[in-house]
Amino acid sequence: MNLEKLEKLANLVLKEMPSSAAEFRYNPQYLSMFRNLMAVASESLPDHITLFTSTNIFDSYQAKTVIKHLLEILEIEKESNSLIKEMKIFESADEKMKQAGLSFSKEDYSSTFHNLNTAFELIIKDKVGIPTTITKINTANIVEVLIKYKIEPHLYLNEVRKRVIDIDNKTKHQGYLPSKIDAINGIRAMEDLISKLRNKELVLSDEVRNKICEEL
Questions:
Q1: What is the end-to-end Cα distance of the chain in Å, rounded?
Q2: Would you state the pLDDT for residue 175?
Q3: For residue 84, what pLDDT is reported?
Q4: How far apart are CA 34 and CA 19, in angstroms?
Q5: Which of 74, 117, 151, 194 could disulfide-link 146, Cβ–Cβ 3.0 to 4.6 Å?
Q6: In the chain, where the domains are located
Q7: For each successive 10 residues of the chain (216 residues), what is the average pLDDT?
Q8: Please, what is the angle between helix 60-85 and helix 28-44, to 10°?
Q9: What is the pLDDT of residue 166?
Q10: 112 within 8 A of 100, measured Cβ to Cβ
Q11: How far apart are CA 74 and CA 133, in angstroms?
């Protein structure tokens, strides 16, 4: 489902939610509507799947809070997609950083890392010159190339590899649950890297560019 349809569905479900906690709890219709929305949101916004699949909802207030959070995510996501279409890739990465901060504020640290990793992927695409039509890239391998050849700012890239990429991979593939401290360190590493790369071009030799292309 595209984001516009998901937004309409979320607003519809939010409008239908009862004000009474008891009515929500004892009327299966409302819980079914909410769970259906979370299932659709999980497919449309995989970076936030942890929030949508692990939330235990017991009353209408909690349900409304999650739906409002979903609408906040959708607003940022739409802005990010708009910037990508306009080829403002670095600015779209900033939007992903906003999503990471929003997830952090909700104590959803797995989604925080998914968004940090997506922001990093967008930045690398922009700075290395990878076409936006190539949707999936192996950021870990590309970073290894940049660090191996000491491409500046390689120390900051190495920090993001440790603080963001490695933890995101552990979260996705090993069931690791990142902590609040992990998330703080990851956000700091990304913010430091962004400050270094915002107005800097990576100097890449033909050899390095070819190595990066091999990793796509």
A1: 27
A2: 86
A3: 66
A4: 14
A5: 151
A6: 1-86, 101-216
A7: 87 89 83 90 83 76 88 84 66 87 90 92 87 79 93 95 94 91 97 90 88 85
A8: 20
A9: 95
A10: yes
A11: 22
Contact (Cβ atoms closer than 8 angstroms) between residue 149 and residue 161: no
* Amino acid identity for residue 195 in this structure: S
Say which residue the tokens 């609408």 belong to: 71
Q: Shortest CA distance to 116 belongs to which of 53, 173, 193?
A: 193
Give the tokens for residue 159. 């920090």
Name 210's Cβ contacts closer than 8 Å, sequence gap at least 6. none
